[in-house]
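Example 4.3 (complexes with small molecules)
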Amino acid sequence: MPRISDHTVNEVRDAASLPELVRDRIQLVRRGGRWWGPCPFHDETAPSFCLLPDESRYYCFGCHESGDALDWAQEIEGASDFGEAIELLAERFGIEVKYAESSPREEAQREAVRQRGELLDRAASYYVEYFWKAEEAAQAREYLLGRGFEEELLRRFRIGYAPSSGTALIQRASKGGFGQQDLKDAGLASARGGQLRDFFFSRIMFPIADARGRVQGFGARTLDPNQRAKYVNSPEGPQFRKRHLLYGLELARSSASRQGWVVVAEGYTDVMGMAAAGVDAAVACMGTALTTEQLRTLRRSVGEVRVCFDGDQAGEQAAWRTAEAARGVPLALSAVQLSEGVDPGQLGGTEDGRAQLKQAIDNAEPLVTCLIRARAARAGASARERDRALGEITDLLRGLPDSVERDEAVRVATSELGLSRSLEERLRGALGSAAPGGETSAPNRVIELSPRGALERRVLSLGLAASAEIRSAHLDTLSPEVFDEPEHRQVFVLVTSGTGVDQWPAEVAGLGTALRAEADHEPNNEEVQEAVYRLQLDELQRRISTARSEGDETGLLEALQLQSGLRARLRGDE
Ligand SMILES: [Zn+2]
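Answer. The structure with zinc ion bound is encoded below.
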């Protein structure tokens, strides 16, 4: 990745308007001098996501996500790193990207990537043109139009056709100045029988793009029943990595992030079928199951993934592997269940089918409980089979955090497998879960602070918002060691030294935003004082406990005295 020049980075930072970016995705309302909206990072009903008063950063009071326009570009818009975020924002706000001086080798690499991208894009356009014009593509056109896909939809997905001649693309590309190596590198040509030939021929072409809509490669389908492979993909390479790509992502992303969920189907035409039914937030995985990488990519835009795989055993296995791949990715998974033998691609072709499809998507159920039901049904009545099913289900549930969802899954497993009370206990024991109906945790990233953590945080946020005079009057009476959390200790030093939040090191920048958000006004003397007293009281309480347990009479007396003094001051006796 070539380095983008500092000048461009600064220009982008100045030009990128966070409110504009956020408004592209969510509706904001003005309240108490700030813009508020439903948080795109976690599920919620009452808006707790806001822009800070200067509108340079966002912050969510529910899940504590925070950041600036660059973070937004990465978390929500799909940029995979800082450089991409700069490029994306530059494009959005009309800034020309200039790269810093780089070595000739880096320069050549960058140029190669750019050329490959251009070649792939031109190839996609060429296939589209050929699909609509060529005589030999008539069958493909009839096939897709006959399945109920309209021209507008086929054009939106840039459906194309690769000529049968086997050299048409090579000829076209060489006229455009692309060499043989370029074509090979892009996975568009390969040597066959000592000759360079088009990699794809006589096939319907589905371009596969990254989150930003840049073509990375193709999926290609033949209509010839004599062809060995019904589908062929671009060869795996630096640009085309199946584990990372999702078909239709660039078209699905904005409605997915708006509504908070996305449907994942198995095939390209399934995605088109969903789009025909008005479900734009649909993608296809590039293999049979979703990979962890793909789930992470989806996590950037949504909190829920609705899996829509075939109703047969292969589909069940794919769903099972998807649930395993999702371990550690904070996403809710649900299953869209269609009647056996139909797929979204077919359903999207008729009005009835579209209604059926939409309903099935709306009624998606938690994936894990669906898997348990299906697995238990397959086990049947045999005790040995049921034992095996229980073992597999236990493994599956082990990957889930202790949650309402897992509790429900245990309940389903118990009833579907007809588990005795003692087997149920053993299952719960194996999962290390609490008693049924106990713990609840929402499927999001809400972080709970300890009571002490909250006291520390209040001191820091008020200290940050207070005038320099009030701040030093009270915070200077504290030492950094009073703060339990190492992060709080570091921030305390920054706050008391008067370092501006923009100058804070990256590892505490998020906390800085949160603290700025929490103090919604400039506090007066009493507020800061009270927060400091409360923290000191908590600290004294600890000293008292330690002194008691160690039998340290002197220490105990001293601490008790300090405590009563502080309490009196808190009451305002002094
Ligand atoms: Zn949130």
